């Protein structure tokens, strides 16, 4: 027995445990519109933990592989939407990682349909939130970089969500292992992306670049490809996360000598000091904690250069004020900065 159809965009749903199997049976018909209605009903059902568990553990996921290769864009897009809902839960992410769906899913990154590509990226983004998922997607990094280059060449508003999701997936993979992205021109491509008008894209591009600037090779590439001047205005960005990620790249890069002297030439110190001196109430202190620590660490590295130490010697009152913060992490970072600034050879 099935429920009455009240929505023409959805397939009728059977009662009880028969609902999920019946809808997957309907996915085997040839009519694309019928498949989309069945998929829409499945999207409704998997919000319920019991139905999600039944979908994942009942052997139904493997049936979606054919739908990911369907000729109809709406069928592929709705299939990705269903998979995205499945990946909202750990049991679904784990099941998808152990399925055979990743190859056909990754092929949709090049699909002509914007909706299809965006929904596919939502699934990949969900998987990348798990370390095991990020590891499984490392082999896709070259394709992600290629697609990012294509999106950068033609900046279109309809593609911004796709680009933001792609960058977030790339950042998650690069935190695990930055070498694949570094080997595929990740630093210069991300450097160009930092100038995007979309806040979300700037935020995720800076996050990915911070991951790439952790190894020595990445630090050197940030210097060699002229990315530091692009980061400077991001420290003034209206979005706090953009500021934090940009400061993180600078913090990583100034560890090496070329990074120190390039930042000194670009006059980064006054900007970093300005960020440290901003007025904060308790709530704002909590939100800006990471930014403050990144700035303190960057200034500490810059003070290792004699030129930086001279400039920062006159800013000891600000550093001393930060060294008396209640937050232990901020206090320790400021105390370290003071030790390096006041060091006598």
Describe it for me?
It is built from 23 helices and no strands. It has helices at 19-26, 32-45, 49-57, 64-68, 73-86, 90-97, 102-107, 114-128, 131-137, 141-153, 160-176, 179-182, 186-193, 199-212, 216-224, 228-231, 240-253, 257-265, 268-277, 282-302, 306-313, 316-322, 328-341. The protein is elongated. The model is unreliable at 1-5 (pLDDT under 50).
List the helices and strands and how they pair.
Elements: H1 19-26, H2 32-45, H3 49-57, H4 64-68, H5 73-86, H6 90-97, H7 102-107, H8 114-128, H9 131-137, H10 141-153, H11 160-176, H12 179-182, H13 186-193, H14 199-212, H15 216-224, H16 228-231, H17 240-253, H18 257-265, H19 268-277, H20 282-302, H21 306-313, H22 316-322, H23 328-341
Helix pairs in contact: 1-2, 2-5, 3-6, 5-8, 8-9, 8-11, 9-11, 10-11, 10-13, 11-14, 13-14, 14-17, 17-20, 19-20, 20-23, 22-23
The SSE order reads HHHHHHHHHHHHHHHHHHHHHHH
Give the oligomeric state of the chains in this entry, treating copies of one chain as homo and distinct chains as hetero.
single chain
What coarse outline follows from CA principal-axis ratios? elongated
In angstroms, what is the radius of gyration? 25 Å
Please indicate the percent range of residues in DSSP E strands (runs of 2 or more).
under 5%
Q: How many helical stretches?
A: 23
**Average pLDDT over all residues:** 91
């Amino acid at each position: 027995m099935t429920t009455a159809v009240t929505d023409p965009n959805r397939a009728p749903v059977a009662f009880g445990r028969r609902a999920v199997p019946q809808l997957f049976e309907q996915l085997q018909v040839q009519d694309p519109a019928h498949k989309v209605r069945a998929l829409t009903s499945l999207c409704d059902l998997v919000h319920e933990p019991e139905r999600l568990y039944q979908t994942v553990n009942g052997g139904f996921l493997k049936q979606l592989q054919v739908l990911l290769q369907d000729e109809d864009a709406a069928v592929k897009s709705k299939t990705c939407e269903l998979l995205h809902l499945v990946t909202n839960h750990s049991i679904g992410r784990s099941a998808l990682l152990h399925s055979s769906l990743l190859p056909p899913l990754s092929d949709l990154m090049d699909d002509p349909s914007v909706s299809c590509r965006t929904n596919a990226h939502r699934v990949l983004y969900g998987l990348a939130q798990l370390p095991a998922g990020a590891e499984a997607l490392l082999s896709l990094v070259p394709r992600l970089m290629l697609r990012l280059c294509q999106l950068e060449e033609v900046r279109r508003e309809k593609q911004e969500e796709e680009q933001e999701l792609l960058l977030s997936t790339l950042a998650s993979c690069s935190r695990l292992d930055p070498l694949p992205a570094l080997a595929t021109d990740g630093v210069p491509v991300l450097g160009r992306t930092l100038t995007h008008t979309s806040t979300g894209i700037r935020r995720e591009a800076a996050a990915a670049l911070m991951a790439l600037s952790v190894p020595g090779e990445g630090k050197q590439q940030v210097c060699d490809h002229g990315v530091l001047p692009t980061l400077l205005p991001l420290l003034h960005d209206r979005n706090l996360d953009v500021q934090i990620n940009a400061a993180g790249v600078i913090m990583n890069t100034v560890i090496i000598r070329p990074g120190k002297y390039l930042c000194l030439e670009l006059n980064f110190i006054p900007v970093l000091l300005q960020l440290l001196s901003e007025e904060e109430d308790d709530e704002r202190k909590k939100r800006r904690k990471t930014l403050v620590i990144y700035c303190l660490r960057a200034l500490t590295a810059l003070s290792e250069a004699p030129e930086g130490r001279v400039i920062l010697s006159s800013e000891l009152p600000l550093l001393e004020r930060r060294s008396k913060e209640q937050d232990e992490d901020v206090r320790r970072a400021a105390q370290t900065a003071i030790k390096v600034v006041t060091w006598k050879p």
